[in-house]
């Protein structure tokens, strides 16, 4: 029987660092396959369940893929579109470590956050890391990484105020991690929902030497909050200038499917001023995942894959009241490749 997850996600070269941005609807899930002396390490950054937008069901995908569980689950911040389904994953998949921002949400995010605390209790304090920004790089396997946020000095200032105020500050102090690999180094910047205030006040100036990145994950599912609070505000752009990325990955459903209208048109227009349009990958538009391979020498490639969503995606429940349901976009082509060489 064909194992789509292994066929698509396991690199043929044991020294390749593979990053897969999985389509999970209105949320985030990024799977890292990390080369190491002990064999491959597997890390999942955030998770979500979105049946309405036909996002991938991570449980069967991970069960097909992993013979020995996840080495780490990383939560950029404790909001439900970055934690939904964690309990189902942890029931079926062994998770050895948890990395998280250390903050406790309020309001309707509390229920999913409790699933994270259950997992932390299960793995134990000795296998739990509270992420804090630092100028020192760290390694997992052969891959180096920088933690840019949240800052230690603001960690105690998050939890007072109304539910909305606390949840907004959690965005401001979301975990941001830059992974890097290769002798001719390439970088992937994972940004969670870190808003423009985070970049302007806490990250850009302090970490400007650690911002340059080849691939950028769009903040907050393509929200304008990466640039501004309100649509008619003057956009903040210094952070993007310092990053100078070549490719952008937007983890969001189609705008018509998003209750927040993600990705925001004003944000996408600003991104298009920086990126060639062919270098912007919107996962929900074509129901696809994006796979980045970085070789040991720094040569890299990007490919889009529709087979994972086709095999593991939730199927839309048809309703006579929904006359505008999206047409199934899957094609027979498994991979569209974009080789980038060693530049």
Question: What does it look like?
Answer:
This protein has 343 residues and is α/β, with parallel strands linked by helices. Helix content is 21%, strand content 21%. The protein has nine helices and 16 strands. The chain has helices at residues 4-9, 58-65, 86-92, 110-123, 163-172, 196-203, 238-243, 265-272, 307-312, and strands spanning 17-21, 30-34, 41-45, 72-75, 98-100, 128-130, 138-140, 143-149, 176-181, 186-190, 215-217, 247-250, 280-282, 289-294, 300-305, 335-339. A hairpin with a 6-residue loop joins strand 2 (30-34) and strand 3 (41-45). The longest helix is centred in the middle third of the chain and has 14 residues, at 110-123. The N and C termini lie far apart (39 Å).
How many helical stretches?
9
Mean pLDDT: 91
Morphology call = globular
SSE arrangement, N to C: HEEEHEHEHEEEHEEHEHEHEEEHE
Strand % is 15-25%
Strand count, sense and barrel status of the largest sheet are: 9 strands, mixed
Measure the end-to-end span: 39 Å
Class by helix and strand content? alpha/beta
Rg of Cα set: 19 Å
Question: Major sheet: order of its strands?
Answer: 6-5-4-3-2-1-14-15-16
Low-confidence stretches: 318-337, 339-343
Helical content band: 10-25%
What's the total number of strands?
16
């Amino acid at each position: 029987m064909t194992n789509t997850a292994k066929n698509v996600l396991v690199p043929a070269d044991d020294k390749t660092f593979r990053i897969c941005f999985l389509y999970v609807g209105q949320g985030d899930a990024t799977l890292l396959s990390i080369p190491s002396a002990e064999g491959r390490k597997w890390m999942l950054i955030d998770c979500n369940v979105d049946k309405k937008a036909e996002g991938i069901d991570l449980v069967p995908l991970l069960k097909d893929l992993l013979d020995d569980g996840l080495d780490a689950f990383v939560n950029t911040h404790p909001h439900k579109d970055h934690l939904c389904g964690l309990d189902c994953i942890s029931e079926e998949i062994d998770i050895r470590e948890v990395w998280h921002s250390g903050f406790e949400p309020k309001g309707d995010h509390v229920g999913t956050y409790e699933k994270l605390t259950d997992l932390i209790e299960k793995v134990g304090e000795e296998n739990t890391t509270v992420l804090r920004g630092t100028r020192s790089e760290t390694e997992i396997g052969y891959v180096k990484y920088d933690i840019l946020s949240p800052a230690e000095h603001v960690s105690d200032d998050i939890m007072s105020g109304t539910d909305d105020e606390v949840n907004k500050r959690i965005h401001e102090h979301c975990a941001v991690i830059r992974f890097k690999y290769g002798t001719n180094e390439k970088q992937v910047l994972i940004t969670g929902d870190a808003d423009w205030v985070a970049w302007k006040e806490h990250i850009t100036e302090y970490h400007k030497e650690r911002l340059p990145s080849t691939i950028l994950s769009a903040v907050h599912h393509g929200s304008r909050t990466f640039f501004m609070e309100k649509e008619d505000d003057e956009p903040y752009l210094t952070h993007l200038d310092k990053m100078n990325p070549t490719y952008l990955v937007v983890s969001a459903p189609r705008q018509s499917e998003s209750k927040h209208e993600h990705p925001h048109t004003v944000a996408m227009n600003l991104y298009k001023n920086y990126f060639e349009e062919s270098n912007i990958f919107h996962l929900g538009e074509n129901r696809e995942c994006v796979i980045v391979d970085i070789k040991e020498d720094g040569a890299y490639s990007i490919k889009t894959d529709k087979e994972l969503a086709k095999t593991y995606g939730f199927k839309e429940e048809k309703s006579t009241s929904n006359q505008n349901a999206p047409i199934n976009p899957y094609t027979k082509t498994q991979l569209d490749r974009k080789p980038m060489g060693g530049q």
